[in-house]
Input
Amino acid sequence: MNYFKYELWSNYKNDNQLRASKLQQTTGNNYDDYQTIAVTKSNQNHPPPSSTILNTINAASNVPKVSYVTSLWTKVKNAEIHPHKREVEAALLANIHNPHFDQVVVFLDRVDSAETCLRFQQETSEIYGEVFSMTADQSNEILSVKLKCVDVHTGQPTYYQMFQNALSDLVTGDVVVLANADMAFDDTISLARHLNPEVLAVLGTRGFSDRMPPVVKDIYGQMMGTDYMTNLEQLNGEWNTDMCRKTLFSWDTYIFLKSTLMGRLNSEDFKRLNTNNEMVPFYMNENGAESAALWAVQQSYPFTSIYNACDRIHSWHFHLTPKTHKDRETPWLQGSSDVHSPMFTPKGYVPKPWGGVQTRVPHPFAPKNPDCVHAGNCFLPLP
Output
């Protein structure tokens, strides 16, 4: 690709005009100083915004901050890298690049002989500079402000640990977007800044398709090439699987205010029954885990609305390569194997109270038209 345009501070006039006006009041800088930046392979006359400008924007504004939080497995030395790892890196770049995230926090699942956060940040800076045609100083300056990496020495975090991580002091945003690492967001995530504190929002992914904004899709193409976008490769992954339209029972993203859940989560709610009738933790990349996690969060706080906002906020799934779900030695305990029983739960599904079958057993789900939609207050005006 000879020309690659990225708009680091695009669309701020929609919901961040306050930031621009306050920046101008405090520094004299104009909105255009950080609105849009275009970079080409042959012309780099427009440098990216400096960390000084980014810090000034954040400090000058009382607008709620938004942090994107995810968990990422480390690269093990001399081990073969799964192609999905590269897709995850592409999604991470897209989210670092997204102007509506004030902070990107990666909890790095570290094991022996694996990369540390220092190496991870160095590699991310190198890739970021390559994709966006920046110098090392430029990419380092942006990532030093926006990217926070946290070494996790206990292996992959459980779902409970991820929610607890999202509530930690390391996450500086008022609003948290907690998502699987292969989710990329576009400008519609700007609505997260307006989320009603009494609403828990989840997002079913829009999949991977030509409907995604070019600036997001181009990042995938830069990282992966076009081979995975052919009809042949569609058989391996999840091309164009729009879970927002397909079902109400799948989501990969939680959006909430830290202050609403702070100190309220119960670790026992984030456990499942195994076949030995023992309560054990579950993880983000296990099938059915999102259902169990939603149930657990619902026990923590009486939200006025649980809202699948996927029609308003779009997440795109960078996963055209084969699945990498965590293998479990013990599956979810079945409620009943009798198809005539009201407790019937097929193998692999989450039993009551954490899940079930969509047509036979009550299943935790987030409707698209909860009370806040009817009241028109799922998202609130900024102060």
User: Anything to note?
Assistant: DSSP finds twelve helices and eleven strands in the chain. The CA atoms of residues 217 and 329 lie 36 Å apart.
